[in-house]
Specification:
Order of helices and strands: HHH
Strand content: under 5%
Number of domains: 2
Radius of gyration: 19 Å
Structural class: mainly alpha
Distance between the termini: 36 Å
Largest sheet: none
Helix content: over 70%
Length: about 90
């Protein structure tokens, strides 16, 4: 059995940092998209209820699919689920 070396730990830390940075940037982009959508919906004089539903649709879909996607990923493998999601 192989023990973790400092080089392996450094690689893992770099990978985790890269994932965190990419997630952070993606979330910033989505936040900006929500601002643009709300601005355009208000310019079109849509009801506030519709604007709220339109902006909440993605987080609700993401929340409702996280557990099933994780279950499927455990059953058939992360790589296949990732490729299927593309």
């Amino acid at each position: 059995m192989r023990t973790s070396t400092s080089r392996d730990i450094r690689k893992m830390v770099v990978n985790v940092i890269m994932i965190l940075i990419s997630t952070f940037l993606a979330r910033i982009g989505f936040g900006e998209l929500l601002l643009i959508i709300s601005y355009h919906l208000s310019a079109l004089e849509t009801p506030a209820t519709f604007a709220g539903i339109a902006m909440a649709a993605n987080p609700i879909a993401e929340l409702s699919m996280a557990i099933p996607a994780g279950y499927i990923s455990d059953k058939i493998g992360r790589k296949r689920v990732f490729i299927g999601g593309l």
